[in-house]
Design a protein that fits this description.
The chain has about 220 residues and is α+β, with helices and mostly antiparallel strands. The protein folds into 2 domains: about 90 residues, P-loop containing nucleotide triphosphate hydrolases (Rossmann fold, 3-Layer(aba) Sandwich); about 80 residues, Alpha-Beta Plaits. Helices cover about 45% and strands about 20% of the residues. The chain is built from 9 helices and 8 strands. The strands form 3 sheets. Strands 6-7-5-8 form a 4-stranded antiparallel β-sheet, covered by helices on one side. It has a two-stranded parallel sheet with strand order 1-2. Strands 3-4 form a two-stranded antiparallel sheet. Strand 1, helix 3 and strand 2 form a beta-alpha-beta unit.
Length: about 220
């Protein structure tokens, strides 16, 4: 890039990333989020047609992560082809048109977001948050509601799945008759996270904890 274009472009990117006031500061004096934004700015200063980003929002503050996601989306809309690796499933669902699930270094599934989620739309899922539950309750629920599949989750949560609409009222009344308080009954919309867990067997919460150990979450 010619110097006459390089300097105005650098100032433009510093302003875009909110770094203009820190432009004269040494790199070592930048925060982690500022460093991340500056390295991305350096990578796109020449408007590349192809861009590789390796976990660009991992370990930085929420505001910086949101800004970086917005800039990635803007570049994608402008025609830049972007390869993005991320441990945040919701980030991939929001930003990417095509997804590849990688487990132990191998691609196990790849498709568009819509095609990956479509089979989940045929499955009805609900999450109950309850108090005073007992270990035998899942068996009682299964016996009382044979078409439904129940799964115990952590922190008093129960996951309910069915190929048909889930009868919320009868389910809540049954639990209350058993002396169990139902604090929340929430329908779970189909998401890429659901697909990921089903395809890979890797629980998202466990994956996030491992990522936090390595450098923190956004």
């Amino acid at each position: 890039m010619h110097k006459g274009r390089r300097e105005p472009r650098a100032r433009e990117l510093l302003d875009t990333f909110g770094l203009s006031e820190a432009a004269g500061r040494k790199f070592g004096g930048y925060s982690k989020g500022m460093k991340r934004k500056l390295t991305i700015a350096a990578g796109i200063i020449h408007n590349p047609p192809l861009l590789f980003l390796d976990e660009p929002t991992t370990g930085i503050d929420v505001a910086s992560a949101r800004q970086i996601r917005q800039i990635i989306a803007d570049f994608h809309r402008s025609g830049t082809t972007i390869f993005l690796t991320t441990h945040y499933i919701e980030e991939a669902e929001r930003l990417c048109g095509r997804i590849a699930f990688i487990v132990s270094g191998k691609i196990v599934l790849t498709d568009t977001v819509e095609n990956l989620i479509q089979p989940m739309k045929e499955n009805h899922v609900m999450q109950l948050t309850v108090l005073n539950s007992e270990s035998a309750m899942r068996g009682k629920l299964t016996a009382a509601f044979p078409p439904l599949v129940f799964q115990d989750l952590s922190n008093g949560q129960v996951r309910v799945e069915s190929g048909e609409p889930i009868p919320v009222g009868p389910l809540v009344r049954f639990l209350e008759d058993q002396g169990i308080d139902v604090m929340e009954a929430r329908r779970i919309r189909p998401s890429l996270e659901e697909v990921f867990v089903r395809v890979t067997g890797v629980e998202v919460d466990a994956m996030k904890k491992e990522k936090e150990k390595a450098g923190g979450g956004s």
